[in-house]
Amino acid sequence: MLVPMNGKIMLVGIGPGQPEMITPQAREAIGRAGVIIGHPDTLALIAMLTQGKELLAVTSNPLERSRLALEKAQTGATAAIVSNGDPGIYAIAATFFGYLKEHNLSADVEVVPGINLALYAAARIGAPLGGDFAAISLTDQCAPWETIQKRITSAAEADFVIALFNPLGRLGPERLKEALAIIGRFRRPNTPAGLLSQAATHNENILITTMAQIETEKLAADTLIIIGNSQTYTLDGRMVTPRPYLPGAGY
Amino acid sequence: MLVPMNGKIMLVGIGPGQPEMITPQAREAIGRAGVIIGHPDTLALIAMLTQGKELLAVTSNPLERSRLALEKAQTGATAAIVSNGDPGIYAIAATFFGYLKEHNLSADVEVVPGINLALYAAARIGAPLGGDFAAISLTDQCAPWETIQKRITSAAEADFVIALFNPLGRLGPERLKEALAIIGRFRRPNTPAGLLSQAATHNENILITTMAQIETEKLAADTLIIIGNSQTYTLDGRMVTPRPYLPGAGY
Q1: Strand A126-127 vs strand B35-38: parallel, antiparallel, or unpaired?
Q2: ipTM for this prediction
Q3: Is B112 helix (H, G, I), strand (E, B) or coil?
Q4: Partner A contacted by B85 (CB < 8 A)
Q5: I need a surface site. Which of A80, A162, A217, A223 has the fewest CB within 10 A?
Q6: How many CB atoms lie within 10 A of CB A207?
Q7: Which residues of B touch A95 (CB under 8 A)?
């Protein structure tokens, strides 16, 4: 069923939450939209940008946000689905395009990037992502746990810096413990680890510790964990993955 | 030698280049700085923000930018080193902290994140980074080629989406060809690949193709290449890595 769309849908990243980290492009996109769809917590962060607009606060999963946005676009509206961080990283964009595919729909879509949690946390922690890195989400809502285990193993073995998203989920810290045990087969216990939770709020918590000392039982669900590679060091309370200029190299 | 620093150094990401993608936070940081240090091309992108400031255009490597910023901070200045994209991803931040470490210096440093090339390109291409992904730079200025080869192999084997930065370098496309051959051992030739070059300019070039059809001889040096995982598909001229909600999963 190919439904004609007169409207437009924008998938807009608002960054970690502070107004000063919303790009002018995202601000402008929200300004153009007549309908703003998002989690109520996300809508609260941009209340100053949405006065007079139709707001649809959706606590359920992104599929429902996608459905609503398309319903609005079919009536000719310009709808924005707003997302914390960046819409393309463990967020709405893949879900939205998947919804289009599944329902055989075509639409005018614009994706507006935002500062995602990894970039924000890295800046606050120092320069932990200075080298090659792997982003892995521990939630198995999107990939089977066996696939995730294999990714953790490969990333650890090949000495990638590893950014672990969604470390807890509904089951608690069991999988995080397993993930850290896998990484521990390839890295020394005192490998630096940087943790950031409650990003961009007054309760933001930054911890630079070692892999062995991560207290998995005490983590907040929104923690991003960055595990260093074999070269990562700490300096003056920061975590840094080196980016040396090797003599003789020149590619 | 621990030199007292009266000034401050900010490492500021300006995003891909358009003024509307510079965050208000980065804009404010540049406003606070008396001295702005960067590649001349980067300085040109923010000329509207730097009137009346001391500008130091440095074409040589980031070590020289770091040295200059510290020299200025020692005289009490607030210096900003500006970087395209994000300072923490294959950019100045790791180099700068490494310079501090090597010279046993301590300084007041602030890192200001920006939309990096991967987030920007992903938004333009669709949602190619929708799942777990690995970021790999092909330049061996920073890691030995053997290490990079191992990372490519592991990332391909574990079905990560792979973002290849700096695909050419001074040697031409030989290593890129080798990288694609490695990935080709684990993925089908028609795996979607998204390429973006000349980001955020009038000459921006976006190509969605397949891994086998990447024309390595014709690439611009600033191309970002995103190779899909086994699930990545194309839809209406976009490239999407799915983020399904698996039945029965619930972590």
Answers
A1: unpaired
A2: 0.96
A3: strand
A4: no
A5: A217
A6: 16
A7: 130, 243, 245
The amino acid that residue A29 corresponds to is A
Chain B touched by A208 (CB under 8 Å) = no
Q: How far is B196 from chain A (nearest CA, A)?
A: 15
In chain A, DSSP finds a helix count (H) and a strand count (E) of 7, 13
- Report residue B213 as tokens: 């059809």
Is A97 in contact with B25 (Cβ distance < 8 A)?
no
Q: Which of A116, A117, A166 is nearest to A139 (CA)?
A: A166
Name every residue whose Cβ is closer than 8 Å to that of residue B16 and which is 6 or more positions away in sequence: B84, B85, B115, B117, B120, B199, B200
| DSSP per-residue letters across A166-211 | S-SGGG-THHHHHHHHHHHTTS-TT-EEEEEESTTSTT-EEEEEEG
Whether A236 sits inside 8 A of B96 (CB atoms) is no
Structure tokens, B86? 């994000």
User: What residues pair up with B126 in beta bridges, in sequence order?
Assistant: B239
Output the six-digit token pair for A17.
Answer: 């939450």
Q: Does A171 touch chain B (CB under 8 A)?
A: yes
As given in the structure block, the two tokens for residue A169 are: 């989920």
If you measure CA to CA, which chain B residue comes closest to A61?
Answer: B245
For B242, which residue in chain A has the nearest alpha carbon?
A: A94
Q: Does A131 touch chain B (CB under 8 A)?
A: yes
The whole-angstrom separation of Cα B160 and Cα A226 is 18
- pTM summary value: 0.96
**Scanning the structure block, which residue is given the tokens 């999107």?**
A142
The C-alpha of B23 sits at a distance from chain A's nearest C-alpha, in angstroms, of 5
Chain B contact present for A241, CB below 8 A: yes
Q: Could you tell me if A16 and A204 are in contact, meaning their C-beta atoms sit under 8 angstroms apart? A: no
The answer to whether A226 contacts chain B (CB < 8 Å) is no
CB contact under 8 A, A170 and B250: yes
Give the three-state DSSP class for B151.
helix
From first to last of its 251 residues, what are the pLDDT tens digits of chain A? 455 578 999 999 999 999 999 999 999 999 999 999 999 999 999 999 999 999 999 987 889 999 999 999 999 999 999 999 999 999 999 999 999 999 999 999 999 999 999 999 999 999 999 999 999 999 866 778 899 999 999 999 999 999 999 998 777 899 999 999 999 999 999 999 999 999 999 999 999 999 999 999 999 999 999 999 999 999 999 999 998 766 554 43
Whether residue A116 and residue B119 make contact (CB cut-off 8 A), yes or no, is yes
B8 has which bridge partners? Answer: B78
Q: How far is CA B130 from CA A96, A148, B110, in A?
A: 11, 14, 30
Distance of alpha carbon B121 from alpha carbon B8, whole angstroms: 32
Give Dmax (Cα) for chain A.
62
Rounded to an integer, what distance in angstroms lies between the CA atom of residue B19 and that of residue B22? Answer: 5
